[in-house]
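Before the break, one more example. Copy the sequence into your notebook; we will annotate it together after we see the structure.
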Amino acid sequence: MRRGGERGLREAFGGIALALLVCFLALSGFDFYISPTPVAMVPKPDARVGPLDKIKVTFNRPMATSRTKVEIYGNPIEGSKFTVDGSWEYIKSGQGIVFTSSTILERGTYNVIVHAQGNELANWSFSVAHPQPSPLNETPSILGIKGDTRDFSAYYAEILRAEGFMSFRTITLADFPKLELASFSSIIVSGAVDDASAARLRVWVEEGGNLIAIQPSGVVAELAGVTPQAMARGAGYLKFDTSRQPGQGLIKEEIQFHGDAVRFAIHPETRILASLRFEGSSETHPAATLRSVGSKGGEVGAFAFNLAQSVVYTRQGNPEWAKQDRDGLAPKRPNDLFFGNAKHDPQPDFLDLAKAHIPQADEQMRFLTNLLMHQRRDATPLVRFWYFPRLYKAAIVMSADDHGTKNGTKRFFQLLDGVSPEGCDAAKWECARATSWIFASSGLKDRDAKRYAAIGFDWVPTFRLTVRIGLALPSMARLRAI
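Here is what the structure looks like once it is written out:
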């Protein structure tokens, strides 16, 4: 009894001493700091990527923003090691960093190091190599000419990849005069073009080339058979001519477009492929046109609106509403970029909910694909991959928040596994799979997570531990399935 009393007394004094120590350290400004660890790097460690100018790293918890230092060293194929100049900014309230290089990172190996409070938080390397020609066709078929960095012209490369085109090359307008055009069957050019480049494009089209011009002006607009008039800011509705190609198979009703558009007056021989009307108006204008040039099959398609900008805005929301809490429900979330009826700024929703059943951005991308293929109807078709394995017509990507339920994720995964064909292979897209975001305290046991990982689910738990005045705060744990 006496020994037990002594032990209890020691434990009591120990607890009081620990509490006093923690209070003293807290009052003196001392902070137990546990360095965050990186959970995602872009590009990934040891990745081999194309030329880029942005590097991103996110951590499992906010980093200490004092004494932060980002160092990037390049080791080119030819030449000596150098320091990459640029600027960086915090993202996700200090839980990540985006570094923007002052120049495009060309071929070579790059090492990224991030320090904070004197601690090295991340250190990884990747390599940059020019994209290799498609094995299906060593000479690229499509050329993309990038204009001003603000005109979204670089995004046409992403659209081409998403649409299954692998045989393409992108260059800047400054590099265009040095490039031989004879090997290309299609060219996409965005915005204004100087007279010398426009003259080269005219000769190339007259020799049978197929040009797509985004909001053309000057000689290129003349070649397309359109006369640009006033630029209109804002958004509106788009309607394809689905009675014939390239509009056949697309949605018959109006869909939205976002971004600026040019009013076209068209020449008599120019065919209208799609029409647009601006928000609040019933008057229609040409949205996309097509004109034959010369006697060798050359054609010029022209867009009155910036298709790439429209696709980005339709998917990501209104950039003018960035960093706003528009729906009044904290925190700021992606849906705030679409929510119109904010108390401080009531406006229509950015996406028309009456069109919510239509994949509007996809339809615009399909139209570009259809036009590229239609222009090649008199020659060898452009090679492209289908969107999904085994010619599936559609795919569903499911995700859900667990919200701390005791067994919601487990029941959901059991349901998916139960409806999957027996002996299915998740790698071949034969099984029903989903993503569940769960709290660390959720009822999914480790053994369950391991079992689901073994049948095709990807279990990636992340924890955040911060010790401040004796408190340990767990973060969200993530269970992700593909």
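The domain at 38-128 is CATH 2.60.40.1220 (Immunoglobulin-like). The chain has four domains: 1-30, 38-128, 142-312+355-375, 389-481. Try to locate both features in your own notes.
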